Amino acid sequence: TFAFIMFYYQFYNGFSGQALVDSITAGMFNVVFSSMPILLFAVLDRPVGSLTAFIRYPQLYNKRENNSLSTLSFWKSGILQGVIHAAVNFFVPYYSMTTVGKYNISDVYSIGKVTFAALLGTITLEAALIARYWTWVFFWFVLLSYFLVYPYFIIFPYIELGLKVYDPAQIGVAEQVLATPLFWFIVMVCYVLTFGSRLVEKTVQWTFFPHDDMILAEKEKIDESQGRTLLSDASGKSAVRLHALAEEAPSRPNSSMHDVDDELDPESDDE
Fold it and tell me: Is the pTM of this model over 0.85?
């Protein structure tokens, strides 16, 4: 998404190579602001809370059903979504700037600050939306990864001045941008368009086209509310999907899983 924003801007600067966001802030995007939520998501996230489910339903490791690593699903989630979100986070701020009024934020550095804040919020909300397994560590890093950008906008120019570095992309820009209501309105519009569309998409998928891991996650929440475990017996359409997922567990002496396996695989008795 960040790369496509830089790509779009080239059509408006005569392909001169002028950057919309200064190099230091661009480097902070990947190293500081967006790295920890993505890292924690990769390490901690899982479709269901109980790790026993992965032993009972090893097909959850198989991603071929969702086509998540290839074909249309990969290009949709990896490329097309980035193209669309980049377009929203660039064109909405670019065409919403004003040259009149008390706060003029139509210069390239101001537009860069607005675009950067809108992009960071979009990335953070996306990570929060797709995360299945929330922990307090993930929660706080998601909040910090977004809200730290505003102190950075204000404090970093003074650090540069203390080092006797005058950077026109930083000095006085953030104060001017953050003081105008237009900035907050623009970033909120970007969040509504990007996060709102993704929320609708996820809602439709969970409701009408759920994957197997989504059904297991929903069953886990229902079982927890009723004081049962994820491996308790199911019924209806979910039972059909769960039984299709389940494989007969190998015979293990003194295993407490035999009774549960018999409940979920009634055909195993005949075998």
Answer: no
